[in-house]
């Protein structure tokens, strides 16, 4: 079969090596494809090492971020305050019983005797009768020169089951339903503090209470009838915890000490000038006040008396509905009391932080 030169088209023999017309080489075998360059020895190992190193660096970065997150102080938030209060109420049985238990009558007795004229106590016990805690009362007549009738209420089995010591309890536990105060954190004595107000909900509610037609009336008789508490919180070991008012007071005293030092740096008479702003005399706080925790405070014209009966000299200045108190035993740390329009309730503030809600005690 004839073959042709690819350059001039002249026919040539199948075994010819060159074209007779133009001299171009024919029947030349195609050049082999260039071989792929050889991979350097150890390239795969190097790539693998790079990947491992990158992964290790990523782990270090992630671990560092996680460590920083763990070491950061807990933020003041609804969740952190709720957790702190729930933990406090779960471990402090006495605090929990103050919220959940009634102690207005000697409930531990098998029988409670009530005079016929004591309608208030009888109405309350009749509520507990409808709840199944007491049997229906039996009227008895007392002997003596002047006969008087009494109503005897006998404790029933459900009532005995609801007792914790001498108290009648409505539930086994309580938890935070909502909380505020985390948005008003203050620094006092170098420590972050806040006064939280928590609305609570019952947990493990007693069956008799859940079925009682007078459930709302019973809850109103609890020490905190609205199931609301105010608790001081502090940032301790980078975590929010419920603290006590004594610790809060210590922090306030530390803050007062810092104020005294600052006033000394500005002039020895600075604190005296501050005291001179407060004058003795009558003020709208005069009288007895009760906190939501049951503590009684009393204010006179020139002193304040705590729940233990200890009096300390103080000066008072009223401006509008706010009374500023400067106690000699509180290191010159002013307190403010904001009164309601009726002057029957008030809010006690220390260093801009709400400490307690006060209710005037009428003699």
3D architecture notes:
The chain is α+β, with helices and mostly antiparallel strands. The model is unreliable at 265-281 (pLDDT under 50). The longest helix has 29 residues, at 43-71. A hairpin with a 2-residue loop joins strand 12 (228-236) and strand 13. The radius of gyration is 42 Å and the shape is elongated. The N and C termini lie far apart (136 Å). An eight-stranded antiparallel β-barrel has the order 14-15-16-17-18-19-20-21. Strands 9, 10, 11, 12 and 13 form a five-stranded antiparallel sheet that branches. The chain is built from nine helices and 21 strands.
DSSP summary, beta strand count:
21
Radius of gyration computed on alpha carbons: 42 Å
Write down the secondary-structure element order.
EEHHHEEHEEHEEEEEHHEEHHEEEEEEEE
User: Quaternary arrangement of the chains shown?
Assistant: single chain
- The parts where pLDDT drops under 50 for at least 5 residues are 265-281
Largest sheet: 8 strands, antiparallel, barrel
Question: Helix and strand layout, with pairings?
Answer:
Layout (H helix, E strand, L loop, with lengths): L2 E2 L6 E2 L30 H29 L6 H14 L1 H8 E2 L8 E5 L3 H12 L7 E5 L5 E7 L2 H5 L1 E2 L2 E3 L1 E10 L5 E3 L2 E15 L1 H5 L3 H6 L7 E9 L2 E4 L2 H22 L3 H7 L10 E5 L4 E4 L3 E3 L5 E9 L2 E6 L7 E5 L5 E6 L2 E9 L2
Antiparallel strand pairs: 1-2, 3-8, 4-6, 5-6, 7-8, 9-11, 10-11, 11-12, 12-13, 14-15, 14-21, 15-16, 16-17, 17-18, 18-19, 19-20, 20-21
């Amino acid at each position: 079969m004839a073959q042709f030169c690819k350059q001039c088209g002249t026919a040539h023999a199948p075994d010819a090596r060159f074209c007779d017309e133009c001299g171009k080489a024919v029947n030349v075998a195609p050049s082999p494809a260039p071989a792929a360059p050889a991979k350097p020895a150890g390239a795969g190992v190097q790539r693998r090492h790079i990947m491992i190193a990158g992964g290790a660096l990523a782990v270090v970065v992630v671990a560092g971020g996680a460590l920083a997150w763990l070491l950061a102080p807990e933020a003041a938030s609804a969740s952190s305050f709720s957790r702190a209060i729930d933990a406090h109420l779960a471990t402090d049985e006495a605090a929990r019983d103050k919220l959940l238990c009634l102690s207005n009558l000697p409930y531990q007795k098998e029988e409670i005797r009530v005079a016929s004229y004591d309608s208030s106590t009888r109405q309350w016990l009749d509520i507990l009768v409808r709840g199944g805690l007491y049997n229906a009362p039996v009227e008895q007549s007392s002997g003596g020169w002047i006969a008087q009738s009494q109503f005897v209420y006998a404790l029933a089995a459900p009532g005995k089951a609801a007792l914790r010591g001498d108290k009648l309890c409505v539930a086994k536990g309580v938890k935070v339903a909502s909380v505020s105060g985390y948005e008003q954190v203050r620094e006092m004595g170098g420590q972050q503090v806040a006064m939280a107000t928590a609305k609570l909900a019952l947990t493990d509610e007693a069956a008799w209470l859940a079925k009682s037609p007078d459930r709302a009336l019973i809850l109103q008789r609890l020490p905190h009838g609205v199931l609301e508490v105010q608790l001081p919180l502090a940032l301790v070991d980078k975590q929010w915890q419920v603290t006590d008012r004594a610790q809060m007071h210590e922090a306030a005293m530390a803050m007062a000490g810092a104020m005294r030092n600052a006033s000394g740096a500005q002039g020895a008479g600075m604190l005296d000038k501050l005291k001179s702003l407060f004058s003795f005399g009558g003020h709208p706080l005069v009288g007895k006040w009760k906190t939501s925790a049951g503590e009684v405070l009393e204010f006179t014209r020139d002193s304040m008396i705590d729940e233990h009966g200890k009096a300390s000299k103080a000066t008072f200045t009223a401006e509008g509905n706010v009374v500023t108190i400067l106690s000699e035993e509180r290191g010159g740390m002013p307190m403010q009391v904001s009164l309601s329009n009726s002057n029957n309730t008030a809010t006690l503030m220390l260093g801009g932080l709400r400490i307690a809600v006060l209710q005037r005690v009428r003699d």
